[in-house]
Amino acid sequence: MPLKPLIDAGTIARRVAELGRAITDDYLGEDLVLIAVLKGSYVFAADLARHIDLDLSIDFLGVRSYADDQQSSGIVQITADLTQSIEGKHVIVVEDIVDTGLTVSYLYENLETRRPASIKLASLLHKPARTQVPVRIDYLGFTIDDVFVVGYGLDYRQRFRNLPYLAAIADGTA
Ligand code: 5GP
């Protein structure tokens, strides 16, 4: 399958370190929980967490929004829930990519019912060309064109998550 390199590992590492420093500055003295949205954000979340110099906790939310396909169904299913209460805590949702915005807006609605002190969003990537629901991204890695990306945690049919860089699938049909 033809892959076109998009963002190299060094560039990703530098940007993730910057985001970690910004979060560290913004949440000094606060009770912070990172919520990594599985599976796509697991690499980003692991790297980001190691650049945040705070006493934080990390939890995971399993979500399915793309069923082995490149099209957003708009249907979001929680496949694994948080293990701790977030009531009264400051939360940062860690996403791999905001595409249509449907997943994040669903997650926000769901998480708000659990009464956290605040919710912000960190996303490695944003594809503004495909927005259906506008979403505010508080900590954004990179804005990209309307291409299907894999690597650094992102998959195509469960493959390519282990690529250390981000690549585009050349023709989108694979
Ligand atoms: P949204 O609900 O914003 O349309 O989609 C969010 C989810 O769709 C992401 O968390 C990701 O799992 C998947 N997604 C959207 N665009 C891409 C892409 O270019 N590559 C991959 N691998 N997944 C994508």
Explain the overall architecture.
With 174 residues, the chain is α/β, with parallel strands linked by helices. It has one domain (3-169): 3-Layer(aba) Sandwich (Rossmann fold). Helices cover 21% and strands 30% of the residues. It has 3 helices and 9 strands, in the order βαβαβββαββββ. The strands form 2 sheets. The protein has a 6-stranded mixed beta sheet, with helices on both faces. Strands 1-9-8 form a 3-stranded antiparallel beta sheet. α3 (102-112) links the parallel β5 and β6 (118-126). It binds guanosine-5'-monophosphate. Guanosine-5'-monophosphate binds at residues 40, 65-66, 72, 95-103, 148-150, 154-156.
What does the secondary structure layout of this molecule look like, with pairings?
Elements: E1 3-7, H1 9-26, E2 32-38, H2 42-49, E3 57-64, E4 77-80, E5 90-98, H3 102-112, E6 118-126, E7 139-143, E8 149-150, E9 166-169
Parallel strand pairs: 2-3, 2-5, 5-6, 6-7
Antiparallel strand pairs: 1-9, 3-4, 8-9
Helix pairs in contact: 1-2
The structure holds guanosine-5'-monophosphate.
Biggest beta sheet attributes: 6 strands, mixed
Taking Cα atoms only, what radius of gyration do you get, to the nearest Å? 15 Å
Please provide the count of β strands. Answer: 9
Oligomer: single chain
The overall average pLDDT, rounded, is 93
In terms of per-residue confidence, which ranges show pLDDT below 50 for 5 or more consecutive residues?
none
Ligand inventory reads:
guanosine-5'-monophosphate
CATH domain class: Alpha Beta
Number of domains: 1
CATH fold-type name: Rossmann fold
CATH architecture: 3-Layer(aba) Sandwich
**How much of the sequence is in beta strands?**
25-35%
Helical content, roughly? Answer: 10-25%
Q: Choose one word for the global shape.
A: globular
Distance between the termini: 6 Å
Spatial ordering of strands, largest sheet:
4-3-2-5-6-7
